[in-house]
Design brief:
There is one protein chain. With 195 residues, the protein is α+β, with helices and mostly antiparallel strands. Helices cover 29% and strands 24% of the residues. It has a domain of 135 residues: Glutaredoxin (3-Layer(aba) Sandwich). The protein has six helices and nine strands, in the order βββααβαβαββββαα. The strands form two sheets. A seven-stranded mixed sheet has the order 2-1-5-4-3-8-9. Strands 6-7 form a two-stranded antiparallel sheet. A hairpin with a 5-residue loop joins β8 and β9. The protein is globular.
Length: 195
């Protein structure tokens, strides 16, 4: 598994479904420069855990947008499959009402470049990458297929990243917006990184 933290996020240029109905032929990461990006991978359309995650991100979408964050979902399904799933009501296992972009990684190139492809299945693990405004990965986490993510934790990580960028302080364990952060001395940082 590759660690992409601290590196430029691999760009992509693929078809995507945006606003729940519109197919975009060329959706790129580079077009989002100047925004924070939460790029999350899920295994497949029309499955069990996946719709709970996609709806959970939609439920908090306004909170991400208020933080200048673009949420982007991605799976190896075709854009036709995405459209069909987006047209399926929530009570039937669909994701009707989801409006953020969903990428079609049909050739599995994005999953490979982010190293989240489960080769024996041909689908992605539940990878999530927080990318800053300059295109650098600042946080990543990968879950196994059966383990859904916490969208609240993703928001907490966005808040922590934006806080550290703004104030130059560091956020301790379980830090939440409004909590006390730590202001490391330069000597303290040198000693920390020696260990």
């Amino acid at each position: 598994m590759s660690v992409l933290v601290g590196k430029y996020a691999p760009d992509f240029d693929v078809k995507a479904v945006v606003n729940g109905t519109e197919i975009v032929d060329s959706y790129t990461l580079s077009s989002l420069k100047g925004k924070y990006v939460v790029l999350f991978f899920y295994p497949l359309d029309f499955t069990f855990v996946c719709p709970t995650e996609l709806h959970a991100f939609q439920d908090k979408l306004s909170e991400f947008e208020s933080r200048n964050v673009q949420v982007v979902g991605c799976s190896v399904d075709s854009w036709f499959s995405h459209i069909a799933w987006l047209n399926t009501p929530k009570n039937s296992g669909g994701i009707q009402g989801v409006t953020y972009p969903i990428l079609s990684d049909f050739h599995k190139s994005i999953s490979k470049s982010y190293d989240v492809l489960k080769e024996d299945m041909g689908a992605s693990y539940r990878g999530l990458f927080l990318i800053d405004c300059e295109g650098i990965v600042r946080h990543q986490v990968v879950n196994d297929l059966s383990l859904g993510r916490s969208v609240e934790e993703v928001l907490r990580m966005v808040d922590a990243l934006q806080y550290t960028e703004k104030y130059g302080e560091v956020c301790p364990a379980n830090w939440k917006s409004g909590d006390q952060a730590l202001q490391p001395s330069s000597e303290g940082l040198v000693n920390y990184f020696k260990h």
